[in-house]
Specification:
Layout: E1 5-10, H1 14-29, E2 33-34, E3 43-48, H2 53-69, E4 74-79, H3 80-84, H4 86-91, E5 96-98, H5 106-110, E6 132-137, H6 148-152, E7 156-157, H7 160-172, E8 177-182, H8 198-208, E9 213-216, H9 226-233, E10 242-244, H10 252-258, H11 264-277, E11 282-289, H12 296-300, H13 303-308, E12 313-318, H14 336-345
Helix pairs in contact: 7-8
Length: 347
Amino acid sequence: MKPNKFYIHTLGCKVNQAESDIIISLLLGAGWRMVELDKSPDWCIINTCTVTSQSDKKVRQVIHKARRVNPGAKLAVSGCYAELNQDKLEQMGADLVLKNKDKLNIVNHILNKKGEADCSQVDNPGLHTRPLVKIQDGCRQFCSYCIVPVVRGSYHSQPPEQVIGYIKKLVSLGYQEVVLTGIHIGRYGLDFNNNYGLSALLEDILNSTSVGRVRISSIEIGEIDSGLVSLMAENGGRVCRHLHIPLQSGSDRILGLMNRPYSSGYFLKRLAWIRKAVPEVAVSTDVMVGFPGETREDFQNPLEAVKAAGFSKLHVFKYSKRAKTLAASMPDQILPPEKKLRSRQGI
């Protein structure tokens, strides 16, 4: 009997990719084969994102394509888009819709097993040159433009022994670099209520595993503590000397409207502190343009300060209106042509 086949399409963030990697590994471990969409998979799995209206559009396009190319296949949809659109997905022909907390149970549904998926049984979790290790989920920051707290819920951290065990398994498979990822990684351990945070986890990873390099995904400026900076400065570069720290805007007025918990001055001061302690560090960032109420002055005046920050990479993107967020109902929404122009000017 030939093994069953599955196709998986992942949209959105590194956390989604990390979760998809586990789904893939569990299905491969059960004897299934991963194939392309045009190779007649028995199941099509779509792991979705809903961070922007464009993300929603891509989800619908992928689902329509899966249905068109493989009308006989069963369709499973999970992730952030599924949190808000279960009825719509069922109308689109989804056989299985699972929200984020049940996402990994796609495997048991497909295999007709009861209970929850056992992620400790992942035999080959490394699917990339730099495997993704999910250490945390959830966000309660409630930036005024962001839907993530609604679809991801509150903070939930993976136990340190589970994270370390996973990394040890990756090392045993020959991987020498891992990427720690989460929805709000700087809040790792907050739900433990024992002062065990990201820096403590990093130190335990370095002491308990032989992994060559640990890379940190996006982190907020106010959540980079002296412990993390010291670990980057020391240990022979085992903690990669790169940080992605989202700025979002150089205008303090706009940062306030965004509900970002810092000023541009605080951001730049902290950045200087990090660079003094770790001169080799490379820092990349995100900047949003076209936020509601952003004037030409808000856009132009901070440019020199942002340039002076010396970011190694700058990702400039346009504000996208999301229902169920505070910014969606703000006055003075910027018209698309103007947002496009500011994005092209791009600092």
